[in-house]
Design the sequence.
């Protein structure tokens, strides 16, 4: 990808769930800054391969793997290191957003949500650490819903997984910071991805947009730019932080 400004030249970024939505926008953003990117996907190779073609095969590769399965995670890390020899930027982005109150939640729902949203990122970091040097970055994904006081009960299962991610961010930063590796999280507000729009009426989308002082939904590229900040040297003194990228939908210390 052409750009005169390449602060991430020579860096290797591994992004799970990177073929669509925020993950795809992040792959494009980091590639535009010079990084080599691994585009992980779970099933449909078509959008992943299209993204590789857009970025350029010399700078991007698509790898199929279940980001919630530990043996698959190990293989994903191995193939990344076999390709580029290291990992500088780790972004566990893959996730699901189940909608269920406590009464509606089945054990299968719970296990699936925690496997991909919590277990996957936890063990991806564990397997990647041996290949990350001082100056590397782990960037986790949470949600601004964790700080929304008007949240409705059907978000319980989803936000409970992201609450776990926020605590992982806080404590892991204390651990990996001793190795010179920063750990931060980006917590998007409502963002205009296919996953967000799926099953929502225009009236509901407009209602959600009305929660924001800008009266609109965020764009994937806006989230990607925040991730890009955490991925570079300009964030060198930022560690253990949760950045809520939501246009002011939620404000305050939470």
Sequence:
């Amino acid at each position: 990808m052409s750009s005169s400004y390449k602060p991430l030249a020579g860096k290797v970024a591994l992004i799970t769930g990177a073929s669509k939505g925020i993950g795809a926008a992040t792959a494009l953003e980091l590639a535009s800054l010079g990084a080599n990117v691994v585009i992980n996907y779970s099933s449909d190779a078509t959008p992943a391969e299209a993204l590789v073609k857009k970025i350029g095969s010399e700078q991007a590769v698509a790898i199929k793997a279940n980001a919630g399965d530990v043996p698959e995670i190990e293989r994903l890390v191995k193939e990344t290191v076999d390709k580029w020899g290291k990992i500088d930027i780790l972004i566990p982005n893959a996730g699901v957003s189940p909608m269920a109150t406590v009464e509606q939640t089945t054990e299968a729902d719970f296990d699936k949500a925690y496997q991909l949203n919590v277990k996957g990122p936890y063990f991806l970091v564990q397997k990647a650490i041996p290949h990350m040097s001082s100056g590397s970055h782990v960037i986790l994904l949470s949600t601004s819903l964790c700080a929304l006081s008007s949240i409705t009960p059907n978000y319980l299962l989803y936000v409970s997984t992201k609450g776990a991610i926020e605590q992982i961010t806080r404590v892991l930063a204390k651990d990996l910071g001793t190795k010179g590796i920063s750990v931060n999280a980006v917590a998007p507000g409502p963002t205009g991805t296919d996953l967000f729009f799926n099953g929502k009426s225009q009236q509901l989308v407009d209602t959600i947009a009305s929660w924001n002082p800008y009266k609109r939904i965020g764009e994937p590229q806006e989230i990607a730019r925040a991730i890009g900040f955490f991925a570079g040297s300009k964030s060198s003194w930022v560690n253990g932080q949760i950045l809520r990228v939501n246009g002011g939908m939620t404000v305050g210390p939470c």
